[in-house]
Design a protein that fits this description.
Two copies of one chain form a homodimer. By secondary structure, chain A is of the alpha+beta class. Chain A folds into two domains: 93 residues, Glutaredoxin; 106 residues, Up-down Bundle (Glutathione S-transferase Yfyf (Class Pi), Chain A, domain 2). Chain A is built from eight helices and four strands. In chain A, strands 2-1-3-4 form a four-stranded mixed beta sheet. In chain A, α4 packs parallel to α6. The two termini of chain A are 27 Å apart. The model of chain A has no long low-confidence stretch (mean pLDDT 96). The interface between A and B is large, with 48 and 47 residues.
């Protein structure tokens, strides 16, 4: 098999599907593509072999028939272009699906990453409790805008696409801090996505890796 | 002309080319594509006409022959796929150029946005002075990794591509706070990109809009 992704041997999210390999596994399952997983320990992230795959020392990466990619957005887009199922055939709907991928990664995810930085990297700082509502407000504003656009539709623009896959993957990261529950339209959207068999296969696969790491 | 972008009538960056329409203008100039600009005031960003284009109320947007896109990454990718000049023809180099676009937007830009949030949105808070070095450290780590990968090469992966266009567009946002100057490999990379005639045409166009707004 020529398609190999990297993932954490012991993910810091404890198998809750928040690590970015989950997005890639989910896309692979939606597309019905086989893949193998190369597990890496934290210490290996900074080793030359992994930095050759990803200069920023993160997971996931994809090696596919000699091609090496390291951004989850680029990997999912590449896979979606390789097989049918996640991108509309018509040019305009296709461009709009890709637009929603970028919205997930460059409009919705940055304030969520900021909250994660605060809760993980600045948890010992006196200011974090007071800052937290400011960051959550930035997330809430964007979630409210997305809720308005989604409305009563099952998916963001017609049939389920890479746009939905990436939006849901990002929204899920705001569940732990309780933000997603404040936005019922998005909470239901995430639940709908989690009910997809491909999601469940991907979730089970990443969870099995974490459980195995605990021995 | 069917291709219309939106931009600020009076950009908060005072015409320094940091607003996200600059990325799109630059891509259009590199590709030799004509475009018109629809200027919007801040008050119009939340008006129904603009929210129909972009539910998050931001600029830029693109309307191209009936297609409406609102993420600068998606717009630049769409344009690069519409004309020759910013994407390699071969599938592997093409996928890698797109990978660098995502790296710019989802790995490099989030900590820069976090610094902008701190300096603009939390400038009145007592903690901002103490937090600033923590955020800059996150940016420096990623800039160091990118510097190592770029090395002595003029562009990130062969010929100039959308990957370079987006990396440079993001790196420029770290010049004001003095971070870019700490990374000479990247500072020279940005200077090389700024020397491109297409960059200069795009920069002059957005600057002329700002100067006109001052009457």
């Amino acid at each position: 098999m020529s398609r190999v992704i990297t993932a954490f041997r012991a993910s810091p999210d404890r198998g809750r599907g928040l690590a970015r390999d989950m997005r890639v596994r989910w896309a692979l399952e939606e597309l019905g593509l086989d893949y193998a997983v190369c597990l890496v320990d934290f210490a290996e992230l900074r080793a030359p072999a992994h930095l050759a795959r990803n200069p920023f020392g993160q997971i996931p990466t994809l090696e596919d028939d000699g091609l090496v990619l390291f951004e989850s957005g680029a990997i999912v887009l590449h896979l979606a272009q390789s097989a049918k199922g996640l991108l509309p055939d018509q040019p305009h709907p296709r461009a709009r699906a890709i637009n929603w991928m970028f919205a997930a990664l460059n409009t919705l995810e940055p304030p969520i990453l900021e909250l994660e930085s605060a809760l993980l990297g600045e948890s010992d700082k006196a200011w974090t409790a007071e800052r937290r509502p400011l960051i959550e407000q930035r997330i809430d504003q964007r979630f409210a805008a997305l809720s308005t656009r989604l409305g009563a539709a099952p998916w963001i623009d017609g049939a389920f696409s890479v746009g939905d896959l990436m939006l849901v993957s990002v929204l899920i990261r705001a569940r732990g801090p309780g933000i997603l529950d404040r936005h019922p339209v998005l909470r239901d959207y995430v639940a709908r996505a989690e009910g997809r068999p491909a999601y469940q296969r991907a979730f089970a696969a990443q969870r099995a890796v974490y459980l195995a790491s605990r021995g």
